[in-house]
Design goal:
The structure holds two protein chains of two kinds. In chain A, helix 4 packs antiparallel against helix 11 and helix 6 packs across helix 9. The longest helix of chain A has 70 residues. By secondary structure, chain A is an all-alpha fold. Chain A is built from eleven helices and no strands. Chain A is globular, with a radius of gyration of 23 Å. By secondary structure, chain B is mainly alpha-helical. Chain B has four helices and two strands; from the N terminus they run αααββα. A two-stranded antiparallel sheet of chain B has the order 1-2. The termini of chain B are far apart. The chains are: A mainly alpha, B mainly alpha. At the A-B interface, helix 2 and helix 3 of A face helix 2 and helix 3 of B.
Chain lengths: 310, 112
């Protein structure tokens, strides 16, 4: 039986449109010549995927110096904003995990955990305010963008994001009613069906945040932002990035103190029992915070580089 | 990109832009011919992402330029700026090789 020749144009779709227009034909010819009718290896496909990510980074202004400093600065600020949305998710998870931790700590201990918790709460609230100020500063430009045909560009993604948001909100009521019938232990992993529903809801929230991120990136990339607004947004992004680092440090301090003095709390076990302080939920939460802080730092480095070029 | 190593695990140069400029120094080539030539003279198999990423950057910097294509294949040639850039890189490498060679002689002399 003859196998169909491999369709290299599928791999080309990962690259940005402008790159495809310039290099697409010769790239497909190169892939066809190299494969000579064979299927590509995983390494070959990975090389193309990596190259496509790199080219998208160059085109957006996140990598290299091809783009103007204003584009670099805008890309850096957008990256910080996307990292902040990851932080919102991780912060909600941390808030749930650390609920009632102060009562679980033995008398005379927990000062570091308290300090860590206050840093997380204060920095989180401040971060939200800064993000809202940033949104307010960009609002007139956003309205202009919508009036000049932007709605046609963004409407599909906005509709998807709105539908996901409505679904998230609709699920809150039955989930809360269900939780009221359960004990604290059942709510924290003791009840299988409830835990599965909660995880599904958390995934839905994550998808909703990603869909709104896509809307914001698509709109902001096409919006006409004055140099003054860009400078303000870039400075706010730097502040948010520092706050993300502060939140991560605060959460790590809280974890370290609770792990040392009341590790059973992290496992939801009875007081004084021998427990590991390493729980999957907390590890994932801290990993998200560290990853988002790293992404924020990359965004700030792009902003700093754009400033050094102007 | 598969990296070439010596028996002792020390890497030879495998910087894609350097390899592409070196290949084009002997005449214009299209993507597949470039990859085959580089594999032959340097023992480095450049993956498609690395090869075309480097071609894109070199063209942006004006170090190579495209020629009119044959069917879908578009050959590239090294520009004057590319030749100068390659000459500078080779001179830097030669200085490094000279130092390594001199110190290696010294080390062998010290051992004997």
């Amino acid at each position: 039986m003859n196998r169909r020749p491999y369709d290299a144009t599928r791999l080309l779709k990962w690259y940005p449109p402008a790159w495809r227009a310039r290099y697409g034909d010769e790239f497909v010819a190169f892939v066809d010549d190299t494969l000579a009718g064979e299927r590509p290896t995983a390494g070959f496909v990975f090389s193309i995927a990596l190259g496509a990510v790199r080219e998208r980074g160059h085109e957006s202004g996140l990598v290299g110096t091809r783009q103007a400093p204003t584009v670099q600065s805008r890309a850096g600020a957008l990256l910080v904003l996307c990292a902040w949305s990851v932080f919102m998710f991780a912060g909600a998870s941390f808030s749930k995990l650390s609920e009632h931790s102060a009562q679980a700590m033995p008398a005379g201990s927990g000062s570091l955990a308290n300090v860590g918790f206050v840093i997380v709460a204060f920095s989180g609230a401040l971060g939200m305010i800064v993000v809202l100020v940033g949104a307010g500063v960009a609002l007139p430009s956003f309205v202009n963008f919508l009036r000049s045909g932007g709605w046609q560009v963004a409407r599909q993604r906005v509709r998807l994001a709105l539908a996901l948001t409505a679904l998230v909100l609709a699920v809150i009521v039955p989930l809360t009613l269900w939780a009221h019938h359960l004990t604290s232990l059942q709510r924290n992993g003791g009840d299988g069906p409830y835990s599965a529903a909660f995880v599904a809801w958390a995934i839905l929230i994550a998808l909703t945040l990603v869909s709104w991120d896509c809307v914001i990136v698509q709109c902001v990339a096409k919006m006409d932002l004055s140099p003054r607004i860009l400078r303000v947004e870039a400075r706010l992004a730097v502040v948010v990035s520092f706050l993300m680092v502060a939140i991560t440090v605060g959460a790590a301090c809280w974890w370290a103190d609770v792990a040392g003095n009341a590790p059973w709390f992290l496992q939801g076990a009875s007081d004084g029992s021998s427990s590991s302080p390493f729980t999957p939920n907390l590890i994932i939460t801290l990993a998200l915070m560290v990853g988002a802080s790293g992404a924020g730092a990359i965004g700030v480095s792009r902003i700093a580089r754009s400033w050094s070029r102007t | 990109m598969k990296k070439s190593t010596t028996n002792e695990g020390l890497r030879r140069t495998n910087d894609p832009p350097f390899l592409i400029l070196t290949s084009l120094a002997s005449g214009p080539k299209h993507g597949h011919a470039l990859a085959k030539d580089i594999a032959a003279f340097a023992g480095v198999n450049l993956g498609p992402g690395a090869l075309y990423g480097a071609i894109t950057r070199l063209e942006e910097r004006g170090l190579i330029e495209p020629l009119s294509g044959v069917e879908r294949r578009r050959p590239y040639r090294i520009t004057e700026a590319g030749s100068k850039s390659l000459a500078t890189a080779v001179a830097d490498m030669r200085r490094l090789v000279d130092v390594s060679t001199a110190r290696l002689r010294l080390a062998i002399g010290g051992l004997s």
